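can u pls check wat happens w/ DGJ
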Amino acid sequence: MSIVYDAAARTLTLHTRESSYQMQIGPLGYLLHTYYGRRAEGNFGPLHLRKDVGFSPVPHALAEETRGWSPDTMPLELSGANAGDFRTPAVCAAAEDGQRGPDLRYVRHEIRPGKYSLNGLPAAFDPGGEAETLSVTLADESLGLEAELLYAVYESRDIVTRALRLRNTGKGTLTLEKTASCCLDLPFGDWDLLHFHGRHAMERQPERTPVMNGAMRLGSRRVASSHQHNPFAILCGRHTTEDAGDCYGLMLVYSGSFELEAEQDQMGSVRLSAGIQSEGFSWTLRPGESFDAPEALLCFRHDGLNALSQCYHRFLRRCLCRSPFSGALRPVLLNNWEATYFDFNRDKILAIAREARDLGVELLVLDDGWFGRRSDDRSSLGDWFVNEEKLPGGLEPLIRGVKDLGLRFGLWVEPEMVSEDSALYRSHPDWALALPGREPFLSRSQLVLDLSRPEVADWIYETVAGLLRRYDIDYIKWDFNRSLTDLYSPALPPERQGEQAHRCTLGLYSVMERLTAAFPQVLFEGCAGGGGRFDAGILAYFPQIWCSDDTDPIERLTIQRGTCYGYPLSAVGAHVSASPNHQTGRRTPLDTRALVAMAGGFGYELDPGKLSEEEKARIRGQIRRFRKLAPLLREGDLYRLTELDDRRDYEAWQIVSEDRDESLVSLVLTHPRANPRPLHLRLKGLDPAARYRLERLEVFEAYLPEPPEELPELFSGAALLYAGLTLPRMMGDYPGVQLQLRKVED
Ligand code: DGJ
C-alpha cells in the first residue's frame, strides 16, 4: 500500500521507495500539506506553526479558539484566493455576481488502484500495474466549485503525479482565472531554484539561484513551452550537489503557455507552484461542467540531483511516452537540412542518400522545402503537396530510390503553420490567428493555424495522415517555427476568448493523439525551431525532440546538460554537423562532435559528399561504435561528473547500465591550458564490490604532448568510485575521451 489513510490522525500519506508525502485534514477541513521528504512514518502535522504572526487572518469560526490558525501561515495542499492566504494562489475563480474565491475545504477522499487519466491532456500511464491513485475532493460550497486533487503514486519509481479537476457544482456560471496543477508548500529550509532558461539556439541553460523573499515567476506566454523557459524546475537545498542533498523536481506535462512560481513568504516558507499561464487565461465553466488542469510530475530525492534526474529519465521513458519507439533502438539518421537547406532536387538528395548508406546511416530525412513552391521560408506552408520542380514525379520516385538503397525514409512537416503566400491561406484566411480588424504579426514570414477550431485540427490530422497513407514514410519531423500572437478566435464567443491559448494546445494534443494511434509504426520527432517545445507533453506522444538548432558540440554541452536534468538522453535529438559549425563558426574535431551527439538520439546533419575519405572512415567507425553502445545509452543511468558551478576546463558525464555491469565515460576538453591540472575523474554508479575491466580508452583527435601512461586494465569498483582515475593529458581544440568499463565475472 503506497497510500495510507490514518483516520485518527486524519493524515493521508503517500510513500515511494525513498520519499513520503503527507497531507492532513486540518481544522474546518483545510487540507494541510504536512510533509514531503525522505521516507518517514508518523504524523507531521504538529511540526507546523500555530502562532499569531500578525496581519494573518483567522477563519471566523476559529477566531475564539486561536489566533494562530491562519491559512496565510499554514502549508496548504492547494491554495485558493481571496480567502485569508496572501501567498501565491493556485486556483482563482469568479462567480456570476463577481464574487471571487475559492476558499477550499475537505469533502471526501478515495484511494483506488491504477492511474487516473485526464480529459484531452497527455498524462502518465501505468505499464507495470503499480500505480495507486488518491483523489481528494475539496469544495467551496458558496462559490459552487469543487476541486478534485488527483495523485498517483509510483512507489518503485519515486514519482508522485498530481493533477487537478475543477467542477462547477453550483447553479451559476463560474469563470476560472487561474488553475495551477500543483502547489507545494515547504515550511522549512533554505532553497535554491534550479531552472532552465534560454533563447532560440541556446535552450535550457541551467541557472541556480537562491529563492528570494517574495515571488519568482517564470514561464511562457507563447502558446509553446518555449526556448526561453522550460516547464521543469528543481528546488534544491543550498548545499545540494549532484550526488548529495535534498531536491524536489516539478515537471509539467504541458506544451503550451505555462507559469512556474517560487515564493518565499514572511516566515521563510517556500511555495512552489506550476500550471497553465494565468495571464490572459480564463475558462467558462457552466453548471455541471469540469475542467482538467495539466499533470505535474513530482520527485523528491535526498541523495542529489543525479538521482533525481535518473528518476525522471526512467519514468518518462517507461510511464509517460506511449510510443513503441520509446524503449526501442532508433535508426541512425541523416537529415539534409544543414547539407542543402532549401537548395536541393531529387538527384542531390539521392546522392546524399547513397553516400549516407555507405557510411552506415539507416534513415534519410528530407527536411524543409519539398512542398508547394517553397524555395525559401517565405511561402507554401499549408500546401502539403510535392514541389514538382525539385522533385519531378513527386515523392514516390525519391522514396523508391531511398528505399532501394536499403534506407528508411523520413519527412519534415510543419502542419500547425500557414504562409500568407499559400493556396491554403488564399482559400481559408480565417483559419490563421488574427485579431479582428488588425494585421497579424508575422514571424519567419508565417502565420499560425487556429488549432482551437475542430475543423482546423481535423484538416491537420487529415493532411498528415494523408501523407502517411499515400507514401512509405518511416519517420516524421514535426516542426513549429514561431510563437503564437494575435490570440483570438472568431469561433469563440467574447467571454471565451481567454480559453484560446489552452484550446490551441488541446487541439494540438488531439491531433498528436490521433496520429500516433493511427500510425504507430511511424517514428515521430518533435521540433520547434530546435528545442522550443521540449517538454513532457510532447514526449508523451513523440519519443524524441530535436534539442536545438545549434549543432555546435561545445554549445551543445550546456544545452544538453540543461536538458538532461529532467529529460532522458533517448529524447534528445543530437546530430553531428559540419565544421566550421554553421551557427557559431567554431571548428571542432569530428569525433568530439560524435561523442556529444551520442549523448542523445544520434544522427548526422551534413553533406557526406563533402567529406574526405579519412572522415568517411571515421564516421563508419562512429556509427559502428554507436550501434554497440545504443542499448546502454538508451537505458542506462546518466551521471553528471561535474558540478554546475565547478570552475573546470572540461565537461564529463557517465552512463551506467541498470545492472551496473557496463559503463561509458565521456569527456570533452573545453579549455586547454599551458600548465593544466590533471584530468582526474571520480566515477559514479558502479558496484564498489565488483572489479571492472577497462575495455576501451579512446582519446579523440587530441594532440598528446607525451605518450599517455598506460592505465591499468583492471580496477576495483571502489577504487574508481572513491579514488577515481587520471586521464592522459590532452592539448588542442576540443579533444574528447571515451572509456568503457565492463564488470569482470569472478
Ligand atoms: C527549424 C528546425 O529546427 C531545423 O532543424 C529545420 O528543420 C528548419 N526549421 C527548417 O525550416
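The chain has three domains: 3-320, 333-416+446-451+459-498+506-632, 640-744.
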